[in-house]
Amino acid sequence: MSDLLRTPLFPLYAQYEGVRCIDFGGWELPVQFSGIQKEHEAVRERAGLFDVSHMGEFTVTGEQAEAFLQRMMTNDVTAIGSGQAQYTLMCYPDGGVVDDLLIYKLAEQHYMLVVNASNIDKDWAWFQEHIIPGVNMTNDSEQTALLALQGPLAVDILAKVTGSEVDAASIEPFRFVQNAEVCGVRLLLSRTGYTGEDGFELYVAAEQAALVWNGLMKAGADVGLVPAGLGARDTLRFEAKLPLYGQELSPTVSPLEAGLGMFVKLNAGPFIGHEALFQQKNDGPARKLIGIEVLERGIPRPHYPIYADGVQIGEVTTGTQSPTLKRNLGLALIDSNYTALGTALEIEIRGKKLKAEVIKTPFHKRTRTPKTPTQGAE
């Protein structure tokens, strides 16, 4: 594995006896530290800490930065206020997805983009192909580490290690604080995540990432904080129906087909892919992403074919036995005529067609606590 890329936190992995690393898109990353089920449950019930430093970060500045991003993105970039983050997508002219990403507005005409690790080079090339005068871009991915502290006790853990000027509990979802002091290190602290639970993402200079990781693990030791790997990250986001690029999203799958229409602002002005998505919305997507449950003994896996009326109507995009619900569940992209709840389907698993049905998504929603003066809006 010596040819694989490694994050700044890779040297810390060895201190965890059960760690197991895999090749993930050219990166040597931990799929688990102590076990996927254990890590999944920790995030749902207490907290988990993820190293997601393989993600990419681009900075966009200049007098035309907002106009440029508005042209590139499906969401309304002009609606983002300073200190706010926004989920959005980039599309090809035919409506297929280049990538899904977060935009952070650091100041007027100053943005940070967070892109998927496997798409860093592709996204950079796409931006450079369309860049306009009055826009400057830098690729800060190698200099930036990203930690994700996720779970219902994330706020309590952060409270032990933040400077007096930062009240993590008061940061609302999709808001962030720049130059926040955490574990004695200045960083960007954002109330975002990819698990379906409350939590934070911490953007920190690569050389200081280990200090923050060790500080958070020490602060969370008494409440059961665990390091968590890619396996739990995938099962957590799956239960919450958060899309994964390359499975729920791709150059051949549009945001509307993936059920992400709320992030496509067709009235906000033209963007790349606007015409195709406008037409698709008017006609109605031919395919839709839905949830399925296998009613017989069998676990759905990506690309397993789905049938109805004896004809293949689509395939599984992600599937597993839900660690929280202990049921065999999947997300599937299928013919829109078969997407009503309760519709009987069949899934082919190892050459056998097993009974399945369309069920409601997301499979898991976290329990939200009432807002108090020390809590952000949930």
List the helices and strands and how they pair.
Blueprint: E1 20-24, E2 27-32, H1 36-45, E3 48-51, E4 56-61, H2 65-72, E5 85-91, E6 97-107, E7 110-115, H3 120-130, E8 136-139, E9 144-150, H4 154-159, E10 176-182, E11 185-190, E12 199-205, H5 209-220, E13 226-228, H6 230-239, H7 274-283, E14 287-294, E15 305-308, E16 311-321, E17 328-335, E18 344-349, E19 352-359
Parallel strand pairs: 3-13
Antiparallel strand pairs: 1-2, 3-9, 4-7, 4-8, 5-6, 6-7, 9-12, 10-11, 11-12, 14-17, 14-19, 15-16, 15-18, 16-17, 18-19
Helix pairs in contact: 1-6
Protein architecture, described:
- The chain is of the alpha+beta class.
- Among the domains are: 10-54 and 142-239, Probable tRNA modification gtpase trme, domain 1 (Gyrase A, domain 2); 286-369 and 374-378, Aminomethyltransferase beta-barrel domains (Elongation Factor Tu (Ef-tu), domain 3), CATH 2.40.30.
- The chain has seven helices and 19 strands.
- A hairpin with a 2-residue loop joins strand 6 and strand 7 (110-115).
- The two termini are 41 Å apart.
- 44% of the residues are buried.
- Mean pLDDT is 95; it is low at 369-378.
